[in-house]
Amino acid sequence: MAYTKLNPQEIAGGKVELISHGESSAYRLWLPTGPAEEYRLAQLDDYAKTPRSQFPLRTPHSLHLSARTSSNSIPGTWGFGFWNYPFGMSLGFGGTGWRLPTLPNAVWFFGASPENYLSFRDDKPAHGFLAQVFRSPSFHPWLIPAGMALPFSRKWTRQLMAKVIGEDGKSLGVDITQWHIYSLQWRADRVLFAVDDEFIFESTVSPAARLGLVIWIDNQYAAFTPEGKIGFGVLANPEPAWLEVKDIELTT
């Protein structure tokens, strides 16, 4: 059965549209052409006004959908899967859930342009199209020295973060502009990823936190490189960019 508990978010001209594809319908998450001056987002999620402690998904859950993109080189990030929205902050006003920044927990198919470097480990892929997993504790005593070291040694801080945050991932050689069937299974002891019903990656790194379903495209980048360089911001969209998804199923 199709999953329908999804809320659209649209920022700076980003749009979530329901379109027809033959006998079925699909969502098109679309970003307009624009300069590197503002953040653009089109997103579907099931946690918009929910405190992180009450996010709807716990193990076991599986996601199954079909997707394609407008290009093999989309500026920013895009993808679909489960995460804990770690970097967002909300004080609960306007019906939003109370949230403070936290460490990442995620199980997702993740697309990131080369400006991104989204890995804390040197032996894991940090951009491109990935099957990726993060598992983090709510707190770890090493976070204190990591925070204190950040102004003096970003490289050492990154090494400490790699010890605190469990991470695994694999680069995927998939033509993302063509329709493919993507599946992920989130279990308590492992996660499994499949493309076109063929298993392509398995990991024992599995988040224990509550997560939410997210499907998105934006023009944001973030990087924390092995050399300790930190960068973040927004990128220009020289042409419109979109992600189309259909046949979204969520099961336990």
Strand content bin = 35-45%
Choose one word for the global shape: globular
Q: What does the average pLDDT come to?
A: 87
Overall SS class? mainly beta
The secondary-structure element order is EEEEEEEEEEHHEEEEEEEE
Please tell me how large the radius of gyration is. 18 Å
Strand order of the biggest β-sheet: 1-4-15-6-9-10-11
Main β-sheet: number of strands, strand sense, barrel status? 7 strands, antiparallel
Unreliable runs: 89-98, 142-152
N-to-C terminal Cα separation, in Å?
12 Å
- Total of DSSP H or I helical runs spanning 4+ residues: 2
Task: Give me the secondary-structure topology.
Elements: E1 7-11, E2 15-21, E3 24-31, E4 41-45, E5 61-69, E6 77-83, E7 90-91, E8 98-99, E9 106-112, E10 128-135, H1 143-149, H2 154-164, E11 166-171, E12 180-186, E13 191-195, E14 198-203, E15 212-218, E16 220-224, E17 230-234, E18 241-251
Helix pairs in contact: 1-2
